[in-house]
Amino acid sequence: MARYIAAIDQGTTSTRCMIFNQAGEPVGAHQLEHEQIYPQPGWVEHDPLEIWQQTQAVIRGAMQKAGANAADIAAVGITNQRETTLVWNWKTGKPYYNAVVWQDTRTDRICADLAKAGGQDRFRPQVGLPLATYFSGPKIKWLLDNVAGLRQAAEAGEAIFGNIDSWLIWNLTGGTQGGVHVTDVTNASRTMLMNLDSLSWNHDIAAAMAIPAAMLPEIRPSSDPQIYGYTLEDGPFGGKIPVCGDLGDQQAATVGQACFSPGEAKNTYGTGCFMILNTGTEVVPSKSGLLTTVCYKFGQAPTIYALEGSIAITGALVQWLRDNLKLISSAPEVEELARTVEDNGGIYFVPAFSGLYAPYWRSDARGAILGMTRYVHRGHFARATLEATAYQTREVLDAMNNDSGVALTALKVDGGMVYNDLLMQFQADVLGVPVIRPKVAETTALGAAYAAGLATGFWQSTDEMRANWGIDKTWQPAADDTARTRLYSMWKKAVTKTFDWVE
Q: How many Å separate Cα 244 from the centre of its chain?
C-alpha cells in the first residue's frame, strides 16, 4: 500500500522534491538551485530545460533519501513560482525562449499601452488584477511580439503557453509522447486571462493582448480526483503515479498552513513576500491595492477565493547583499551581522528593484537607500534589509484589514526567512500581533502534497489536514510601540522617495 505523497516545489531560485507521510511530516527531500539570468536591467529569465533537469534530479534524490519506490507513492502534487511565463513547441518539447520570470519588468510599455483604454484597472472586474508587469498575459504578448517565428507557430497550433506548473506536468506525463497540457485555477488566476467567476479563459482579454486562445492550457481543479495524468514508467519516479494536485506556490502555502476558514491568513517569506487571506466562496474586490485571486478549488467543491498582498523583493534582498555587494557569504549570516547593531542607524532600504507591488503597483519606482550618514556601516545595512521585509508586510496587512474589515489577531508564517529570529521578532513588533511558525515550515510543498493526497483519498478531509498543523514557535509583540509607530512612519516616507524614477 502507498505510504507517501510526493510534492515538487519549483521556486524562483531552486527546485525541491519532498516526500510526506500521513502525518504531513517530511521523510525525504532534495533541493537544487538553478541559474538566474539577467540579460538587461529589469529583465529576469530562467532556462526551462535546466529546471526540468533539476526537477528530475531532485525527484530521484528525494526518493532515495526517503527509501521509497514508485509503489510507495500514492500521488504527486506540483507547486510553482507563479506568473513565470514559458512558451514551447509541443511536438519537439523545446522552448522558444527562456522563461520570463514574474519579477521581470520588460512588459511595462505593453501594460501602459493596454491601460490607455480603461486605465490600470481595465480588466480588474473580470480577473481581479491590475495591469502590471507581474502577470503572465503581458509576458505572453511580449514573447509573441519579439521572438522570431513564434506568433506564426502559435497561430499554427504548435506553440503552447504555460506557467512552470504546466511545463512540469506536461513533461512528467509524457512530454512529446502525449503529455497533458493543463493548469489549475490558482495559476490560471495569475495570468490576467481567467474570469474569476466562471473559472474560464476570457477570450476578449486574450484578443486584446493578441494571444491565440489555442495556446492556453486546460483549466482544472487544484485537487482533481479525475487525475491530470500519470508519470511514466521510465520517468524520474520510476513508475506510474497519478499527478492530481497543482497549486501556485502562495496558494499551496495557504493550504499547507491549513487556512481553510474565511478570515485565516498566512505570510510566506521567500524570494518575495506573499500574504493571503481566505475570503471563502466570496469574490472580494480590493479597494486598497490588493489582488483578488483564487485560493484553491478541491474537486467539485465550491471555489475558495482570497485577497493577496504581493511583495516583489524580500529574501531576494538578502541574496543581493550576498551576491552583488558581498557583505555576507551566506544568507543566514545576515541575522548575525544585523545583531551587531542596536537599530538601523537611521537608514531605510526600499527594495523596489522590480517596481513596487502591493499596495502601490508602481512600475516607475526603483530601489533606494534613504537616510545615509557616515555613521552607517555594514551592520546597519543588514538590519535595514531585514526591517524592509517587516515594513512591507505591515503595509499589506493594513490593506487587508481595510478591505476585509477583519483585524487579524495573529499571523501564520512560513518560508526560509522564518528561521531568522531577529526578523520574526521585529515583524511581531511592527504588526502588533503575535507571529506563529508551524512545526512544518515548508508549507508550500506540504500544500501541494495535501492537494494530491486529497484527490486520491490519502487524506479524507481538510479537517484531517488541519489536525496535522502544530505550533513550533510564537513571537509576541514588544510592549514598546516604537516599531509600529515612529519607525513605520519613517518607512512610509522613504517609500515615497522611490516613485517616478523611471520615466
A: 20
